[in-house]
Amino acid sequence: HAKQNGRRCAALFETSMHEAVQERRNIEVDLRAALKRNELELFYQPLVSIETSEIIGYEALLRWNHSEKGMIMPDVFIPVAEDTGLIVQLGEWVVRSALHEVANWPEHLTVAVNLSPAQMRSPNLMPTIINALAATGIAPQRLELEITESVLMNDNQSNVELLHKIRSLGVRIALDDFGTGYSSLNYLRSFPFDKIKIDRCFVDGVDSREDCRAIIRAVTGLATSLGMVTTAEGVERSDQLSQLKLEGCIQVQGYLFSKAMPAASVVGRIAPTVERPVQLREIGE
Ligand code: C2E
Ligand code: MG
Ligand code: MG
Ligand code: MG
């Protein structure tokens, strides 16, 4: 009996494995077409200064408006794009689009763009950044690139050199999702990041758990000593915000202020505020 059950399970497992493989293949085929059909869109989520409550800039987050499946989130298609190498083309599109969008914003607003490790291996990355900055006339200081520590794994010297080259343009570099993965303090020594983004998993418990609070306190202290700014990701409650302020965190980002929104909504929000900066309380949901 047990043996029969085992066989049944194995068959079910094979079926679902097969389906998963098939689904990935579908995504791959569709994603190639998506670039040509203009189905990709950047949404923007505000980054807010804890001290002044003002919006400092926005993080560009990729969305895919699939013709049949509707909106697909990056966690579904970015891994496929990375595996297939499509991420290079896709990432170039993201850099160009984000910089063209910033051209519509007041000059004090910055934009953050996520970079995949695979993009760091492409010889096109540097020229794409330089050309997009030149084409839009955007000050390099308004562009921030978010990388994860995997880029620095195994003491990857060519990536460290590339990051230095990018930074010498004036572009800022942030370390994203800090505290997840294989976080090693050594990564903070291998490159002088402008910013550390503390992962949502620590921010989540900052108002209820002493361990999360202790970690946030340690990371903000460390970042400040190293001359780096800290951003807390995934802030959803005002209790988290007040605690993060106490711990000396500099910036916050999360649903408490706003979800990521289409570019048109960003412009709609900043347009009437030329004389008056956007205040945090105006953007709560
Ligand atoms: P990330 O760079 O860490 O971006 C933050 C993610 O957290 C976003 O998810 C954002 O919508 C979500 N988030 C923000 N505030 C909150 C909150 O208060 N609560 C919760 N539960 N979530 C919050 P999203 O847009 O689904 O993106 C997921 C990941 O996909 C990003 O994580 C990033 O790693 C990747 N990604 C997005 N766009 C791009 C891109 O253009 N290029 C690359 N290479 N990766 C991208
Ligand atoms: Mg990010
Ligand atoms: Mg993150
Ligand atoms: Mg992430």
UniProtKB/TrEMBL annotation:
Residue ranges occupied by any EAL domain in the UniProt entry: 24-274
Record's protein name: EAL domain-containing protein
Organism whose genome encodes this protein: Parasphingorhabdus flavimaris
